[in-house]
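Protein: Peptide MFS transporter
Species: Lysobacter auxotrophicus
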Amino acid sequence: MSIATAPRATAGARWFNQPPGLAILFLTQMWEIFSYYGMRTLLVYYMTKQLLFDQQHASLIYGVYVATFYFTPIVGGVVTDRWLGRKRAVIIGAAIMSFGHFLMASESLLYFALAAIALGNGLFLPSLPSQIDDLYAKDDPRRGSAYNFYYVGINVGGLLAPLVCGTLGELYGWHWGFGAAGVGMLLGLAIYTLGARWLPAERPKPRDVPPAQRMPREAMRKRILALLAVGLCVMVFRGAYEQSGNTIALWADVGLDRAAGAFTIPMTWFQALNPLLVIFLTPMLVMRWTKQAAGGREPSPAKKMALGAFVVAAAFVMLACVDASAQGGAHWSWLAGFFLLFTLGELFILPIGLGLFARLAPAGHAATTIAAWYFASFGGNLLAGALGTLWSVMGHAAFFGAMALVAATAGTLLRLLDGAVGRAEAGNAPAPQSSTEQA
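Structure follows.
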């Protein structure tokens, strides 16, 4: 099958009014997210409680691991676009990641296991979402909401991860939780392989893109500069955002009253609030944006992203006030309120940014451009890990206030970039990539 026929292969099919290939892609990543967040939910607790690492050491390892997890896609995206192709990259990457998750069963292989997961992810992560655009013709009205549906789908995995892997690890033993994460990765691999007929064909390699479809140098420069600037802002934002699995998890353990009657809520369950809220809040936001778009009032991507960063900053301000005034531990409902604001802000910035990078991807460089989006997570997680070391030397309220400042800084910069991003989108429409798109 040529890429020219890929959108027509699914044009008559429906899955919630979307091509069935979208379901295959997000179900595959749903299980990858399940395995990733399932292991990540346990990682800090495992290092501090089982391996007896001190908090600063554990936070640094956590930050470096998560950062590396988002760095390897830069190399993997280039390898995918130039040599492997997206389908083979997903399969190879998923197999390596499964192997790494099962290696977590051995305490002595901790670093090797983390390296294997990060390596496999380098091939997997940029290759999967870069296939979404090819499920649709350029004039397909469903294309605009595809990344929102995708983001909801994969967050089901994020919801299940702490409930399954976290509960198994916390109540029955860490290795049970890590093993469940490995099984989830294998399920994702099976779904992707069995559903391959619904997926789009491979895009041409960069060297095979016809000259007529190559982007003019000036247009390419504007896009690269706009994406680079947005990526740097998101990198700053993630310095605060990624505290949710690091210092926020530690605060839930020591600074929170987790009693609900006679029942004490497990620490890891709070990590399920974020994906649960993503699932419920996204349809409401999509309906609001659709209504605004119909009236010509929908905010631009950069404005949405800026607003998201400011909402996350407000969530940290709330937590700082709660911690400063709480006596004997804050009630768990305050953390639930934090995640409500936190998730609302996230939905304005992360799926919007992913879609922006996908739309501005030059022909032949889809996986590499998506990898560049995730590279912002690399720098952001390094920053988050470094900021996390301040947890032990700053008061908790002061630390949360500092994270609010970090998020607000990112929001201010994104708002200033609105004009440049708008020009990159509106003034440099991509050349047609297939006969289907021209039809």
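Remarks: The first helix runs from residue 6 to 9.
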